[in-house]
Amino acid sequence: MFIPDKSKRVQEIVHIESISDMHDVFGLARPKHPLVSVIRFMDAKIKQEYHHVRCSFGMYCITQKNETQGSMGYGRSSYDFQEGSMVFIKPGQVMSYDGHESKAKDPGWALLFHPDLIRKSELGSSIDHYSFFSYDITEALHVSEGEKQTLNELIAKIEKEYGQNIDRHSQKLIISNIELLLDYCVRYYDRQFYTRTNLNKDILTKFEQLLKDYYSNGNQLNIGIPSVDYCGKHLNMSPKYLSDLLKKETGKSAKVHIDDFLMNVAKNRLLRTTESVGEIAYGLGYEYSQHFSKIFKNKTGMSPSEYRSLN
Fold first, then answer.
1. Could you give the CA distance from residue 127 to residue 113 in angstroms, rounded to a whole number?
2. For 257-291, how does the pLDDT look when each residue is reduced to its tens digit (9 = 90+)?
3. Contacts of 260 by beta carbon, 8 Å cutoff, 6+ apart
4. DSSP reduced 3-state for 280
5. Of 49, 228, 262, 308, which one is least surrounded by beta carbons within 10 A?
6. Does pTM surpass 0.85?
7. What is the mean pLDDT of each successive set of 10 residues along the chain, which is 311 residues long?
C-alpha cells in the first residue's frame, strides 16, 4: 500500500480501499475475512506515518473510542456521557488522525465493512437511511456504559462469526448483527437528541433567526433560496445532523422548515402587497415562478392567486 511522503502530507490524500489496507495502517496481520473486520485499539495503533494524514476510505467504519482524561465538549455544551463516543464513516469520506491516544484501560474498537459485504442484502438497500454516516465528527454519538455493553456484545458476535470456519450462514449472520448494531445506534441517537432538548430548542431559535436575517439582508436575490447546506454551515453542523435534530424536535426536517418559512412570507406578501405572483416568487429567491406556485399549492391546497382572492 502507498506510504505517503511526509513532505507532502498536507496536499495528499491517501486512499484506503480495502480491509487489508486498513490493517496495514494499524500494522496488523492480514484480516481473517476480506470484507469485514474488528480492530481493537488496545492491540493496535496507527502507524506514525499516518498521523495528520488525510485519508479517504473505501469502506464503512464505525469507531467506539473511550476517553478518561479531561472534559469533552459539544460546541459550548458538555457531552451527555463521557464513557465513550462513536463516529460513523462511509465510503468516500476523508478523515485524518491527530495522533491523540486514549488513556482508557479499554480504548475501544473499530468495525470495518466493505460495501461488497452488504451489496446484495437488504442492508445494502437501506444503509443510506442511517443518516449519522453523514454527520460531522463533532456530532459523535456518546454512549453510556450500559449502551456500550450492548454494542460490545454485538461486536463480539461479529468477530466470532468471521473468526471461525466460514459457512453458508456466516455472511447473513454477520450482516444481521451489523444491522442490529446500527439500529441500536439509531435508538441511542434518539436518546441523545432527547436529552439535549434545551440545546436543540436554542438551535431551533438560531435556525429561525438565520432565515429571517437571510431575507432581511437580501441574500436571496444573489444566492437564491437558502439551502440546508447553507444553514448547517452557518450553525456549525452538518446538514444531515441539523435536519435530524429539527425533525426529532419538531417533526419537520430542515427543508420543510425552510419551505414553511417561505410560504408564510409569501402569504403576507400576497395579502399585504400588490406584487404579482412572479414578483413575489423572484423576491423569495425562486428562479421560476412555476416552482414557487407548485410548492405553495402543495402547502396550502390552492394557487397563490386563489389564496389572494379568498382573503
1. 12
2. 999 999 999 999 999 999 999 999 999 999 999 99
3. 252, 299
4. helix
5. 49
6. no
7. 44 86 93 95 86 88 74 38 76 79 78 96 96 88 93 97 91 97 96 85 92 95 94 93 92 94 94 94 94 94 91 63
Residue 302's alpha-carbon distances to 155, 260, 294, 305, in angstroms, are 53, 15, 9, 8
Nearest to 126 by CA among 84, 182, 165, 85: 182
How remote is the C-alpha of 289 from its chain's centroid? 33
Look at residue 83 in the predicted model and tell me its pLDDT.
Answer: 55
Q: Is 140 helix (H, G, I), strand (E, B) or coil?
A: coil
Q: How far is CA 81 from the centre of its chain?
A: 19
Q: Say how far apart CA 155 and CA 153 lie, in whole Å.
A: 5
Residue 242 to residue 177: CA distance in whole angstroms: 28
d(CA 289, CA 296): 10
Give the separation between CA 134 and CA 140, rounded to whole angstroms. 11
